[in-house]
Structures are given as C-alpha cells and as structure tokens.
Amino acid sequence: MSSPAGVTLVPPRLRVRTVVVPDPGPLVALLPETDALAWIRGGDGMVAWGEVVRHKAASPADAEEWWTTLVASCDEETELDGAVPGSGLVAFGSFVFDPDNTSASSGLVVPRTVLGRRNGRAWLTEIGVEADEQRPVPCATPVPPAPEGVRFEGGSLTSEQWRAAVSRAVGSITAGQLDKVVLARDLVARADADLDPRWLVGRLSETYPRCWTYLVDGIVGATPEMLVRLEAGLATSRVLAGTIQRTGDGRTDLARADALTRSSKDLEEHEYAVASVAAALEPFCSALNVPETPYVLELPNVLHLASDVTAAVAPGVTSLSLAAALHPSAAVCGTPTDVARGLIAELEHLDRARYAGPVGWTDASGAGEWAIALRCGILDETDPRTIRLFAGCGIVAGSDPDAEWAEAQAKLAPMIGALTTRR
Ligand SMILES: C=C(O[C@@H]1C=C(C(=O)O)C=C[C@H]1O)C(=O)O
C-alpha cells in the first residue's frame, strides 16, 4: 500500500455508475491478470480490478474515517432497485494482525470495475467514471496456468522449535499467566515461475464453497471464519475454535465430530473465542444472541466447533467499526488479549503480517463483510514465485504439541492443495 501509515490523502470526488447485467457465469473466469480482487462464496460474490484510489490505514478505525470522507463526496447512479449490499461504491481491504509487530501494512483499495452477483442478481459497477465514459464489457479471460514445480521450504521455526513454543505456552497457561493463546506457524512455497493468484482463487473457491475465498493485495485464501458481516442493521459473527482433522472416512468423521462436541479442551477453547466476540459486540447493539452450544462446521479438511453470534446494531454503526472493535478475537489471539498478543510476539518468531487480520469489503452504506484472513498465503512482493502460508492453533492448558502440529498441518491443506492440484 503506497502512502505512509495513517496519512489521510484527500479523497477525490468519485462518480460511480452501477448497471444491471445478465448472469456473468463463473466470477473467477473474469479476473484479469493484474490488480485483481476477489470475494467469493458458493459462486456468488464480487470480482474487481483496477485501482481508483487506495488508503494505507493504521487500523480499521482509521480506514473507517477515510472511507466516510470518500463516501460523502461521491456521485452515485444505480439501476438496481433496493439496496444490494456490495453494489455501488465499494472498497476491499486487508489489515495486519498486530501493527506493533510487523513490517507489513494495512489498507483499503477502491477498484475501477466491480462485477457482483448475489441471489440471482448481477451488477457491474464502474468507479471514477467520466460522465460519458464507456468501458469495455468484462469477458472471460484465459484459464491461468497451474503452478509448476512447487516445493515447500521450512518456515520461521522448525517443527521441534514450534512444538517447544507450544509447550512453553502450555507452561504459561498452567502458571496462570493467561487462559488461551493462538500460536501460528508458516511454510514457504516456491514455484518455478510466477504464481498466478487467480489459479489459487479458482481452486480454493471450487474446493471450499462454504468458505469465503478472498484475494486482496497479494493475500489469498479461503477462510471459514467471519469476524463480522453487517447487513440491514444485523451483525453476524461466525466464531470458530476447537478443531479436529477429517480422515475422509464418513463413519470415522462422524465419530470424530461427536467427540469434538464433548471435548472439554475444545469446548473451553471455543468458549473463550465466543466470549471475546460477544463482549466486543455488546456496546454496539440493542439485542445480542449468543448460542448456548456450538455446532460442528464440516469442511473438506477439518471439523470446527462453530457458533454464529448475531446482534441488532444501532443505526450508524458500520462494518468497519465493528471489525475494529472485534479484532483480534480470542479465536486468533487469546485470552486475555494483551497477554496473549505479547506471548505470540515472544514465542512465534514470525511476522504474521496480514494473516489472521480482518479481510473483506465495505460499501458506501457501511454494510460489509470482514472475515479473518485464515487458510491463506501472502505472495512475496519481490519474488512472485514465492508464497508464505500460515496456520495456527488455539493453545489451552490441555494442549498437546504433537496434536497441535498435526492440526496446523491440516489447516495448511487448502493452500497446499491449491498450489499442487493440476486442475
Ligand atoms: C488460527 C487458525 O484457526 C483458528 C483456530 C482454530 C482452533 O484452534 O481450533 C479454529 C479456527 C480458527 O479460529 C488458522 O486457521 O490459522
């Protein structure tokens, strides 16, 4: 992101035009080679490209301020009747996990062209258009090449070092310093030629249709965890914590799902995550619904304990302000937050950058979706043949280092699969 952190450039006055379009078919097929942005779930979502303006943000709260000013000076025309979240002026964004422990930066980008589809309605938004400008209608691009010769190199810590870090975290927990901490590890993948993120978006969105597949400024992944989605005054947060790997055998997986719902270690881990989300949402809402017991979310690689927390929020509250309040939840940081953040910085030996930070979009009304950037990789800006993958696990008193290593490996599977599948 190009301007210094926290610097608020005076936003330009933008003309925004939205038209209704026929069903565009698979959204991924429309992504161009450069400046592509994507947000896809179950085939619906948005693909976008070009760049009208961007803001390098110090935090989601700072991004919110800049966005509000931009929205206030924008001329919008739309053919859509009724509010369709994501149509019209939209910004995609991605934020670092911990601004105090990273060399990476956060920001919002406003694309030139957005193609969206939701519940059978498709639209095309053009941003920054002159009154009489006609842009070419987007059409399918050639299928991007599969990565060649991908090999995996070690991450920041060896497996022994990472397991030792987990043991130290368990020690701090049993010593009473904190209740839960999430420790992540990384894995570097290198291909023979530049990686095309469109290939990864295609594979991830096809294999993980229940997840949110995203591509924003070189971070690409398919996350199952929604930090906050805000639409028509209703906020929803999908909280995940407590995980078990799938085996591929239906009966065994059913037994594993059952065991997960009774595992006191996983239920405890889950409880911390739900409590942190409920506490962060509370000040913004008039009604809050926190499910008493989690359900099991089934993904192709893992089973998660999941809770969908919902809240009716006060008028004027935006998705970015909620994301600012919710991040970092105990699903990716720990409890208490500050102690966990400190322990992460001490034990991980890893720059998480935008992994585990909010990723998503906001529209001009403040509606939006901010997921947690999990099951992802960050393309190396200086060497596009290289991508760094990340995965982490919640550590509580009952955690076992070997089991946590295996769990993190299972969470790396979506990206490893996307990098190594030939079609
Ligand atoms: C930290 C990650 O996942 C988080 C940790 C989980 C757990 O420890 O059970 C489950 C889902 C996520 O909240 C990750 O995928 O990298």
Automatic annotation (TrEMBL):
Single GO molecular function: isochorismate synthase activity
Signal peptide: none
Pfam families: Chorismate_bind
Catalyzed reaction equations: chorismate = isochorismate
E.C. numbers: 5.4.4.2
SUPFAM superfamilies for this protein: ADC synthase (SSF56322)
InterPro entries in the cross-refs: ADC_synthase, Chorismate_C, IsoChor_synthase
Domain Chorismate-utilising enzyme C-terminal: 159-411
Record's keyword terms, sorted: Isomerase
Enzyme type, top EC level: isomerase
Name the UniProt record assigns to this protein: isochorismate synthase
